[in-house]
Design a protein that fits this description.
Chain B: One of its GO terms (molecular function) is transcription coregulator activity. Chain B: Keywords: Nucleus, Transcription, Transcription regulation. Chain B: One of its GO terms (biological process) is regulation of transcription by RNA polymerase II. Chain B: Residues 328-340 have a biased composition (Polar residues). Chain B: It is found in: Nucleus. The complex is a heterodimer. The radius of gyration of chain A is 17 Å and the shape is globular. Chain A contains 3 helices and 8 strands; from the N terminus they run βαββββαβββα. Chain A has a single domain (7-177), classed as Beta Barrel (Hypothetical Protein Pfu-838710-001), CATH 2.40.320.10. In chain A, strands 1-5-4-3-2-6-7-8 form an 8-stranded antiparallel beta barrel. The N and C termini of chain A lie far apart (46 Å). Chain A is an alpha+beta fold. Helices cover 18% and strands 42% of the residues of chain A. Among the domains of chain B are: 423-509, no CATH class; 522-592, no CATH class. Chain B contains 13 helices and 21 strands. Chain B has a 5-stranded antiparallel beta sheet with strand order 12-13-14-15-16, with helices on one face. In chain B, helix 11 (407-429) packs across helix 12. Chain B is elongated and about 195 Å long. Classes of the chains: A alpha+beta, B alpha+beta.
Chain lengths: 193, 599
């Protein structure tokens, strides 16, 4: 029986202030293959209620602008620092064609709905890499959680055989955007209240 | 440098006056006088001439006491038996001991002099205070002016140092401003063109690869910083210019089917025009490749495509590359009289693109759009590139693309449609009849299909209209009438096939008008014929019959039969009747023949 090999996601994150967002988008249009596509996605995060697996999370994400396209149910592993220059983590992704069925399945597996958020921004492609510049909103809230800045994420998803190449590509994009945004590794732990 | 403030140091005046400034910039300060020097200067200003006599008496009184003090000193030296010998025995027993004691003696003598002078002063103050005047120490005028100059020079030096700091700041501010201007220009260029930093240079991309083009030319250019911190563009030689592809339709006799626009464009060098040059090259190369595959001969600048017998499309590439553009720009403004050189240069002007050229360019851009990668990914967390297996399977897989038709076939279809369109338009505009009139309305569906609705209208107050529809495709034009008749005509046969049909429809409309007028007066229609066009009418009382015909010249021929006798038909001379046209005259005839009981 063949086991499904998880993909590895290599990523770097940063932020850019509102006045410089347009400069960043112009630079990305020059270095990426695609001219940039607007997106607006909603993501539901489910936490496992089973004792012993309480830290496990599943994420269900779908597009609000293209509802006919399939949604994705994802599991993201713990961020690893195998390469000191970038962050990497295991990523499982499954396309789902029915949101209600996916929610029912996840809840039947013992997961509880934790929170929702909406991500709105622009996504660029450069080979297998994706560069997203977006803001995060609460559903129903008009203002972003960080009104004066946008999140910038450079990520690449692929099998482990392509990880080395993706790391180099991510670092190349980081160097090209160095003057506008500082992409670096960030601590993924939630801040203490 | 902190842009918020600039530190300027200012020197205060030195504590001591500057005596002189050496060439190396070091200053020699004038040392202040010591107490004894100041006292000696004061004493030198004392005037002793007014009271010399009293002074002599005082001195005579005081001198013995001083002399006794000296004798005591000498006696003490003698009593010791050679004080010098004893002194010499105390100090070093060599020549240096004499100078040692000499120094001591001189310092004691100086102190004695000062003490004596002080005593003299005190005596003078006690005896004759009003005779002693003390004048303020007068400064040396020359020295005073020199000191003033030195002070001014010192101040100048302080201000000069501050001025240098300010000048340095102004220069750096200017450089920063120029850098900001240069960055703003770079930002403006980056908003329109793809720029990339390679090593120490900035390279740009003119190609349409991001739009889906697969032309092998990279279309790269460079940005270089000019002396005034602005940017100048360096284009490769083959992209330095302007070009366009022109498509024209010509008949076998060489006549152009569409009138050429008179205005022409003067070529200019710009990034947009260089991109258009690249697009024109790609377009012409694509056409030539397809011509070669189809077995059509293609030249370096022009290609002739046969469309139909007697009709061909000419695709030409007009290109102006090189420094001749600048010469043309200069010569255009030099003089208003066209010289032979200008006439030659005018031949190199680019023609304005017509409808067919724009359509061809749109075809190429559409092909680029089809080759462009899919937008997304949506949602953004989806993988950037899907596998082919994923693309082709599932309910949301990408549809199988239709077999792509070449640019040449599509261009031929557009050209044929344009030629058909022109023929139908000429047919309608050259309508030979004054009655009924022809009114048409165009409806263009796409570059290869159009429709025109034709209406036959009478110059009268009635609203009777007859309609016909002409559909124009890329191969043929089809005429549909209200009676269901359908006539198709290919390129070159439009006038020959469609015009007779339209004329028959016009005749039918005229007869329809006659029927309408007769029916309103109570007449009955006995018979009707379309070819030849004729109608037989009977009066309401049955006593009169009317035959209305249209001859070959589309003129009404009206015959009347009274009394129901079918043999005696009398021709009505419509020329002698009053009326604007034959239909109005026929209305008069009908009215005259209608019995009063039915009017």
């Amino acid at each position: 029986q063949q086991q499904r090999v998880p993909n590895t996601e290599v990523y770097l994150q940063g932020s850019v202030l509102k006045p410089f967002t347009e400069f960043l988008l112009t630079r990305l249009r020059g270095i990426c293959d695609s001219p940039g596509d607007e997106f607006r996605d909603q993501e539901s995060v489910f936490t496992c209620a089973v004792p012993g697996l309480s830290g496990t999370r599943l994420r269900l994400r779908w597009s609000l602008l293209h509802p006919h396209l399939p949604a994705y149910l994802r599991y993201l592993g713990i961020p690893e620092s195998a390469d000191h220059r970038v962050m990497s983590r295991a990523a499982y992704e499954v396309p789902v064609f029915s949101l209600d069925a996916a929610r029912q399945l996840v809840e039947a597996m013992g997961f509880q709905h934790e929170f929702d958020f909406i991500a709105e921004g622009t996504v660029f492609r450069r080979g297998l890499l994706k560069v997203t510049v977006y803001r995060v909103y609460r559903p129903g809230a008009p203002a972003s959680l960080a009104p004066e800045s946008s999140l910038v994420e450079v990520s690449g998803l692929g099998p482990s055989s392509l990880t080395a190449g993706m790391v180099e590509s991510v670092l190349s994009v980081r160097d090209q955007l160095k003057s506008l945004v500082l992409l670096a590794k960030h601590d993924q732990k939630a801040p203490k209240a | 440098m902190n842009p918020a403030g600039v530190q300027i140091s200012a020197e205060c005046l030195p504590e001591y006056t500057v005596e002189r400034i050496n060439p190396d910039g070091s200053e020699v300060h004038e040392k202040p006088p010591t107490a004894s020097e100041a006292f000696c200067q004061l004493v030198s200003k004392i005037k002793f001439q007014q009271w010399d006599e009293d002074l002599e008496e005082f001195v005579s009184e005081v001198e013995p006491t001083i002399g006794s003090a000296d004798e005591q000193l000498d006696d003490s030296n003698l009593s010791t038996g050679g004080g010098q010998q004893q002194a010499a025995s105390l100090g070093p027993a060599n020549a240096e001991s004499a100078s040692y004691w000499q120094n001591i003696r001189l310092s004691i003598a100086a102190a004695l002099d000062e003490t004596t002078a002080l005593m003299d002063l005190l005596i003078a103050l006690r005896q004759r205070p009003q005779a002693l005047t003390l004048e303020p120490m007068q400064r040396d005028v020359e020295k005073y002016e020199q000191r003033i100059q030195l002070v001014v020079q010192g101040k100048k030096k302080c201000v000069q140092a501050a001025a240098e700091v300010l000048e340095k700041g102004r220069g750096s501010n200017q450089m920063l401003q120029q850098e900001v201007i240069g960055n703003f220009e770079l930002q403006q260029i980056a908003q329109c063109w793809k720029l990339r930093r390679v090593a120490n240079t900035i390279s740009g991309d003119l190609s349409l690869r991001s739009a889906g083009s697969r032309y092998p030319d990279s279309g790269g250019f460079e940005l270089r910083t000019a002396k005034d911190s602005s940017f100048e563009v360096l284009l490769p030689g083959h992209l330095y210019g302007q070009a366009c592809v022109q498509v024209t339709l010509r008949t076998s006799s060489g006549e152009s089917l569409f009138p050429q626009p008179a205005a022409t464009e003067l070529p200019r060098v710009s990034l947009c025009n260089s991109q258009r040059l690249l697009l024109a090259q790609e377009l012409y190369n694509t056409i030539c490749c397809e011509c070669v595959q189809a077995g059509i001969r293609a030249g370096p600048d022009a290609v002739e495509l046969p469309l139909a017998p007697g009709l061909c499309a000419n695709v030409s590439l007009y290109k102006v590359v090189g420094p001749e553009i600048q010469q043309q720009e200069q010569s255009a403004g030099m003089s208003s009289k066209p010289s032979s050189q200008q006439q030659q240069q005018q031949a190199q002007r680019l023609p304005r693109p017509n409808y067919l050229s724009n359509a061809l360019e749109c075809l190429l851009l559409k092909r680029h759009q089809q080759a462009r990668p899919e937008p997304g990914p949506f949602p953004s967390c989806a993988p950037a590139g899907l596998s082919e297996r994923r693309r082709e399977a599932g309910p949301f897989s990408r549809p199988v693309p239709e077999p792509e038709t070449g640019l040449l076939d599509r261009l031929a279809a557009i050209c044929r449609h344009s030629a058909l369109y022109r023929e139908v338009a000429n047919l309608l505009e050259a309508w030979p009849l004054a009655e009924p009139r022809l009114v048409w309305h165009w409806q263009t569906g796409s570059s290869t299909s159009a429709h025109v609705a034709v209406e036959f209208v009478r110059r009268s107050y009635d609203l009777l209209r007859s309609r016909a529809l002409i559909s124009i495709g890329d191969r043929k034009a089809v005429l549909l009438t209200t009676c269901g008749q359908r006539v198709a005509a290919r390129l070159g046969d439009v006038k020959r096939l469609l015009q007779p049909c339209l004329l028959r429809e016009a005749d039918r409309h005229l007869l329809l008008c006659v029927h309408s007028a007769s029916t309103s007066l109570g007449w009955h229609l006995l018979a009707n014929s379309s070819d030849p066009a004729a109608s037989l009418l009977r009066s309401p009382d049955g006593q009169c019959s009317l035959l209305v015909q249209l001859d070959s010249n589309r003129k009404f021929v009206v015959s009347v039969n009274r009394g129901g006798n079918g043999d005696k038909w009398r021709r009505v001379q419509l020329d002698r009747l009053a009326g604007a046209n034959a239909l109005e005259k026929l209305d008069h005839v009908l009215a005259a023949l209608t019995p009063l009981s039915n009017a």
